[in-house]
Amino acid sequence: MIRIHLTAADFARVRFAPGPAPLQELNMALAKMMRPDDALLYGRWRTRLLRALPAAAKPFSDLVPAGRAPAFLDVFSNDLAEGLETVRSFPTALVRSEIERVHAPVPGPPPRWIRALHRGDDDAWQLLHRAQRAAFDAALRPVWSRIEDLHQEEFTRYALTAAEQGTAAALTALLPGSRLRGDTWELDAPWEADMTPDGHGLVLHPTFHGLGHPFVAAPADGAVHLTYPAGPGLPLVPDAAGTPEHPLVRVLGRTRLHILLLLAEEHTTGGLARRLRISNATVSAHTAALRGGGLITTSRAGRAVLHHRTALGTLLLRRHSGSGRPGAPPRF
Question: Model's pTM, two decimal places?
Fold first, then answer.
């Protein structure tokens, strides 16, 4: 669990990132690529991305062994060139300690260029920068305009909730299941972390290639930076002209297909409404249609209405996952 301890000054300094952070979004995309889960949704996207990554991006696999990334890769600038300069500006002592931390459990000596980076060698830094640019160009540049649009949509959702219900409600709405206990914001995560901005505030960074749980960092500005999963929850692929739609769009409609895809995991009506940015009533109408077709089931747990995908619904998706353009999700 992550606990962020907020003072009154921190609440007054909660702010939304002005735009998506290229290097942080890249970190999330590459981490998502390396995980084997959600194969139905992400399997073809992973395969396509692995094939698209050029040889120049290979240093990432050396720098992030066993999925453990050094902290100096967490950069929140919304400009790629500025972000690369920020990476280079981290203190030498931090760079060295982070390289040692992530390579400590890996048997054998690290690659030669990693040892050079540990020494602060300029050529090693240039190699890393080329790897970051090459990976960004392959993984994110084709969909960057979509990421920028999604970021603006997420900002609008947050701003409206904050204006109508206050900052506390807007924060907990960002991550279903998160809660405020007094002045402490608790967020579910697979590790324990306690963060104290100490009056420097909180900066919110939605990511659209997230791993399903938030990440926190405290860079030199003193504020706590929270990266949290947002957006449609589907792989982002370029909208090339003439690209065929998912074959089930014409049968189910985009919204119902999106619901069926999201129900790879159990969701409440409200949870689906937040993910799709539609009303609870609209979700209820669509889930009733899917339930009538035997593609989902609905149950109650107290006051919550829970939706589950049936074996028939999963079979339908699998049967059509190879139709049309490989791995193509519905376009929204």
Answer: 0.70
